[in-house]
Amino acid sequence: MTQSDSKTPRADQFQGDREAFQGASGDTMNSPKRTKRIVGASQRRAEIMIATLFVVNGVVSIIGAFFVLNPILNASDYLARVFPNQGAVELGSLLWSINNIGLVFIAVFAFPVLRKLDEALAVGYLASRIIEGTIMMVGIAATLLLIPLSQEFLKAGAPHGSWFQTIGDVLQHAKYLGLTGLSLLMLGLGGLLFTWMLFRYRLVPRFIAVVGLIGYALVFLVSIAAWFGLVDPSPGASGWGGVLALPVAVFEIILLPFWLFFRGFKMPEAPEHPRYGSDAGA
Predict the structure, then answer these.
(1) Backbone dihedral region of 131: left (phi > 0), alpha (psi from -120 to 50 degrees) or beta?
(2) Residue 5 counted as domain residue
(3) Non-local CB neighbours of 65 within 8 Å, separated by 6+ positions
(4) Domain assignment of residue 52, yes or no
(5) What DSSP character marks residue 251?
(6) What does the radius of gyration of the chain's CA atoms come to, in whole angstroms?
(7) What is the rounded distance in angstroms from the CA atom of residue 267 to the CA atom of residue 88?
(8) How far apart are CA 142 and CA 169, in angstroms?
(9) 213: left (phi over 0), alpha (psi -120 to 50) or beta
(10) Buried b / exposed e across 243-266, counting CB within 10 Å, b at 16+?
(11) Within a domain: 79
(12) Taking a C-beta distance cutoff of 8 angstroms, is the pair 45, 68 a contact?
């Protein structure tokens, strides 16, 4: 009788340990996964704005470059064409300005989301977009300065081999550097920061992030190669420069906006840790 009574406390202890283990296992299995999508109204608005701006930027830049400015500024007698087509030049400059402002606000809307994951990379992405937009506005200013130069050129009787042509060529090169030569470098750098965060934290499917990573890496390399005259990255240029820009175009105009419109970023949820101290204190 005494022996059976002595075993009762130990059996009760084993029973309590087993129940505690089962309870802990149940809590672990029922705990939320890190991949669960958590989104508030402000983040959803940011996702819609980012997707919208990517699409708008793609449309206005294509129209402004290929259909408005290039037929005028790429002509051999561009100085004789700019002032008579002043409205078209101003429209193309306006479309490019919308693109420049939009690309900055893409980073502005993305910053609150990205800073939760890596603040340093989020700041770097925002800074690169601001620098890119500033450089491109210099190219727009050079384009608009061609209008009064063309007006004076026509008033002077369109003389060949004059200083008008020299200044025009300088402004054309400043436009190229602002809208293409220097801005592409910042586009590639900022895009790599952005898509690396998308890839690392699985904010979008890996396939979409990889397309962006490859595209922006190509843009970065092409911009450097263009400094040495190896490729021509100008919009509408023939050769490898335009072909290598296709992955970025697909990423910015199709893949990422489509995903953000219908699904949004997949933000990781911070795991909930049990408060061991409260149970011990009780």
Answers:
(1) alpha
(2) no
(3) 92, 96, 179, 235, 236
(4) yes
(5) I
(6) 29
(7) 44
(8) 11
(9) alpha
(10) ebbebbeebbbebbbebbeeebbb
(11) yes
(12) no
C-beta of residue 212 within 8 angstroms of C-beta of residue 194: yes
The parent domain of residue 111 ranges over 41-262
Structure tokens at 89: 């030049």
User: Following CA atoms 214, 109, 177, 225 in sequence, which dihedral angle do they give, to the nearest 10 degrees?
Assistant: -10
Q: Higher confidence at residue 29 or residue 124?
A: 124
d(CA 230, CA 55): 30
Look up tokens 């970025």; give the residue. 248
- Tell whether the model's pLDDT for residue 114 goes beyond 70: yes
**In this structure, are residues 150 and 80 in contact, taking their beta carbons and an 8 Å threshold?**
yes
Which string of DSSP letters, residue by residue, matches 82-120? HTTTHHHHHHHHHHHHHHHHHHHHHHHHHHHHHTTT-HH
**And the tokens for 183?**
């801005």
Residue 199 has φ and ψ, to the nearest 5°, of: -75, -45
Does residue 11 lie within any of the structural domains? no
- Taking CA 110 as the corner, what is the angle to CA 106 and CA 111, rounded to the nearest 5 degrees? 115
**Mean pLDDT value across residues 15-44:** 56
Collapsed DSSP state (helix, strand, coil) of residue 232:
coil
| Cβ atoms of residues 110 and 61 within 8 Å | no
Residue 31's pLDDT is what?
42
Read off the pLDDT of residues 205-261 as tens digits, 9 standing for 90 and up.
999 999 999 999 999 999 999 899 888 887 766 556 667 788 999 999 999 999 999
253 with 212: CB under 8 angstroms? no
Instruction: Report d(CA 190, CA 133) in Å as an integer.
Output: 12
Domain count of the fold of the chain: 1
Chain-centre distance for alpha carbon 54: 8
Global confidence as pTM: 0.79
Neighbour-count burial of 43, counting CB atoms closer than 10 A to its CB (0-12 exposed, 13-18 middle, 19+ buried)? middle
